[in-house]
Amino acid sequence: MKTIAIDMDGVLADVYAQFIEMHFAETGERLSQKDMIGLTEGEAFPHLLKHVNSKGFFETAPLITGARKVVEEIAKVYKVFIVSAATEFPLSLGEKHLWLSKHFPFITWQQMVFCGSKEIINTDIMIDDHFKNLDYFKGKTYLFTQPHNENANPKNHERVNSWEELKEILL
Question: Most CB within 10 Å of its CB: which of 43, 46, 123, 139?
Fold first, then answer.
């Protein structure tokens, strides 16, 4: 059985929507994802560090459309691991575990990999929205489109724009 490493933030969890809502609640200013194309997350969200260090940020992030359904289907054919950098921000480790348990109850604790760097990951396939994770990976890579990578040329990575598109490719 082939193995897949799936990133959490920006691939399963819609952290852009979470940042936009938290920014609006704090400032009254409604940000648009269109205006963020080509910007790093730090450039797009001036209060990023404050928000990711806020209780509830990771635990209450909304799901990306189609993620749960397609991951559940993929898990019938592949050994799935959710791989998330969860040690940089103190609150994220516990909150990410709770979020995954809530939204993906079919993913066991043995399939949750929380780390600092993803360079050690050795699955057949990796799905991520950041080049820093895909560029060092030795297997097949899929770049999940997010505003910060939308203008970039994925070169050695296949770009995917949705979970439905991934379903067509992987199943």
Answer: 123
